[in-house]
C-alpha cells in the first residue's frame, strides 16, 4: 500500500506543480459562429437563375451563330415548334 500512497502523493504534487507554473486558468474554447452572407435559399435561387441564363445564352449562340439564324428568334414560339418538328420528323 505504500506504493499507492506514494503515487497519490506524486500525483498531487504534479497537480500543484501545474498550478504553480500556470497561474492563468485554461482558455475556454469559443465556438466560432459562422455568419452566412447569403442564405441557402437565396443561393438556390441564384444558381437556378444562372442555369436559366446559361440555357438562353446557349440557345442564342447555337441558333444565332452556329445555325445562321437570328439570336432574337429563340424567343418566338414558331422557332421552337419548327425545331420540335425537325426532331420528331417521322
* Content of β-strand: under 5%
Distance between the ends = 99 Å
Number of helices: 3
Q: Can you give the mean pLDDT?
A: 83
Which percent range fits the helix content?
55-70%
Q: Low-confidence runs (pLDDT<50, min 5 residues)?
A: none
Provide the succession of SSEs.
HHH
Q: What would you call the shape? A: rod-shaped
| Assembly annotation | single chain
Summing up helix and strand content along with how strands pair, one would put the structural category as mainly alpha
Rounded Rg: 36 Å
Largest sheet: none
Strand element count: 0
Pfam family, one: EpuA
Keywords: DNA-directed RNA polymerase, Membrane, Transcription, Transmembrane, Transmembrane helix
Transmembrane segments: 40-66
InterPro entries: RNApol_su_b/EpuA
What do these coordinates show?
Helices cover 64% and strands 0% of the residues. The protein is mainly α and 90 residues long. It has a domain at 35-89. The longest helix is centred in the middle third of the chain and has 27 residues, at 40-66. It starts with a helix and ends with a helix. The relative contact order is 0.05.
Give a brief outline of the structure.
Keywords: DNA-directed RNA polymerase, Membrane, Transcription, Transmembrane, Transmembrane helix. This protein has helices at residues 2-21, 40-66, 77-87.
